[in-house]
Amino acid sequence: MYVGVILSGKAVSIRSPNCAYCKVKPCSREPQAVKPDFCPMLTYSDIVSESINKYVGVVKDLHRTASTVEKEGYCVWPRLREVYEFSKMLNLRKLGVAFCIGLSDEAEFVVKYLESKGFEVYSVCCKCGGFDKTLVGLSEEQKLRPNTHESICNPVVQAELLNNVGTELNIVVGLCVGHDTIFITYSKAPVTYLIVKDRVTGHNPAAAIYVQNYFKSRL
Ligand code: SF4
């Protein structure tokens, strides 16, 4: 759906939903206040009002616990601690870690940290299976180092091995863009992120937004 609005004095057509263009965000504290015409609370009011009824069962537990973690550790707990507290509050026992081989040290730290907190932790490296990239249709030229064995990332097996041992929450540690998508698609357990891979920014993708002058030519 497109909605005509005035932005910076110009008449433009904006797709809805598109909250990123909203400068007022009354949904946060004053939901009855005036909203932009493209606000989904106006354009898709039926979907919005129905959504509150979807918080039942496991989703309700996850949702309420997330808010409890936010309240208790707000601006104090680093995300690693939040993942631990979230898992503890949900009374989980088995956790899975799906990690990139390039973050092996980080994965080992995370696994040992969570084990020290009493969890049963399983982890799977992205290269598990050791399948050469040519087996999924890539040519030698499409490898980083042509004519050598180069194992393709295998997010399906990462998910399926963790599914097989029955992890209750899976934690992503640095999977590539797209491989993470596949992992999330195949994971039976709910997934949360601990580290978002960004080889250029020390795994801090927001840096490219915060330091735009530096990254402009690369964006
Ligand atoms: S929901 Fe409506 S008020 Fe909230 S950010 Fe989106 S457009 Fe703005």
Give me the secondary-structure category: alpha/beta
CATH-derived architecture of the largest domain: 3-Layer(aba) Sandwich
Range of strand content? 15-25%
| Overall domain count | 2
Q: Helical content, roughly?
A: 25-40%
Query: What is the distance, rounded to the nearest whole angstrom, between the alpha carbons of the first and last residues?
Result: 28 Å
Biggest sheet record:
4 strands, parallel
Poorly predicted parts: none
What is the CATH homology-level superfamily of the largest domain?
Answer: Response regulator
Q: What is the CATH level 1 assignment of the largest domain?
A: Alpha Beta
CATH topology of the largest domain: Rossmann fold
How many strands appear in the DSSP assignment? 6
Q: Topology as H/E string?
A: EEHHHHEHEHEHEHH
Rg from Cα: 21 Å
Taking all residues together, what is the mean pLDDT? 95
Number of helices: 9
Numbering strands along the chain, what is their spatial order in the largest sheet? 4-3-5-6
Backbone shape: globular
Bound molecules: iron/sulfur cluster
Kindly list the characteristics that best describe this protein.
about 220 residues; alpha/beta; Rossmann fold; 2 domains; four-stranded parallel beta sheet; two-stranded antiparallel sheet; 6 strands; globular; binds iron/sulfur cluster
Please give a structural write-up:
With 219 residues, this protein is α/β, with parallel strands linked by helices. The protein has 2 domains: 2-50, no CATH class; 92-218, Response regulator (Rossmann fold, 3-Layer(aba) Sandwich), CATH 3.40.50. 36% of the residues lie in helices and 16% in strands. The chain has helices spanning 40-43, 45-51, 57-73, 79-89, 104-116, 155-165, 179-186, 207-210, 212-215; strands at 2-7, 10-15, 94-99, 120-125, 169-173, 191-195. The protein has a 4-stranded parallel sheet, with helices on both faces. A two-stranded antiparallel sheet has the order 1-2. The longest helix has 17 residues, at 57-73. The two termini are 28 Å apart. The mean pLDDT is 95. The structure holds iron/sulfur cluster. Iron/sulfur cluster (SF4) is lined by residues 19, 22, 25-27, 35-36, 39-41.
